[in-house]
């Protein structure tokens, strides 16, 4: 990704449940967001929204 010219209209996203197994070249994202598993209250809220 080093050779890609900077462009404000491109967003690269990745998802994994095993971030430590990523190739080192893929670990160089500018921003990392970790999303934990929802607890019981959050799960009920999600179910209420989608049912």
UniProtKB/TrEMBL annotation:
InterPro entries: ATPase_AAA_core, P-loop_NTPase. GO terms for biological process: proteolysis. Pfam families: AAA (PF00004). GO terms for molecular function: ATP binding; ATP hydrolysis activity; ATP-dependent peptidase activity. Residues 1-36 form the ATPase AAA-type core domain. Coiled coil: none annotated. Signal peptide: none annotated. It comes from the Eukaryota. PANTHER family: ATP-DEPENDENT ZINC METALLOPROTEASE YME1L1, METALLOPROTEASE M41 FTSH. This is ATPase AAA-type core domain-containing protein. The lineage of its organism: Eukaryota, Metazoa, Spiralia, Gnathifera, Rotifera.
């Amino acid at each position: 990704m080093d050779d890609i010219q900077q462009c404000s209209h491109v967003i690269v996203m990745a998802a994994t449940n095993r971030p430590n197994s990523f190739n080192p070249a893929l670990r160089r994202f500018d921003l990392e967001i970790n999303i934990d598993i929802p607890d019981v209250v959050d799960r009920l809220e999600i179910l209420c929204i989608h049912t």
